[in-house]
Amino acid sequence: MLDFAFAQSSAPHGSSPWSALLFQLFFLIFLLAIFYFLLIRPQQKARKRHQEFLAKLKKGDRVVTSSGIIGTVVEVGEDTVSLKVDANTRITILKEYISGYHREKEEEKS
Length: 110
Fold this sequence. Notes:
Elements (H helix, E strand, L loop, with lengths): L1 H6 L9 H39 L6 E4 L4 E7 L3 E7 L2 E6 L3 E4 L4 H4 L1
Antiparallel strand pairs: 1-2, 1-5, 2-3, 3-4
């Protein structure tokens, strides 16, 4: 008799199609927020820092390019930079390919 009573009970609360849709919507928003804060936002910050670095670039700075060439800035143009890499060798590269300042290790200075 008791088994028959449990078989006739109604469906549990919150099992409507709207609640399932709301759960999926909140889950999707949650995933998009995680994606934004873990991938997109840090990349935008890094790009902004690199653009500020390139704007502050001046003659005499010792820099390294993305291909590993180390040189001293001789001339800064709008889109290009001339680097002195040896006594009589100058190369012109695009600004965006300068990775950062070259910092020599402490052992090399000694």
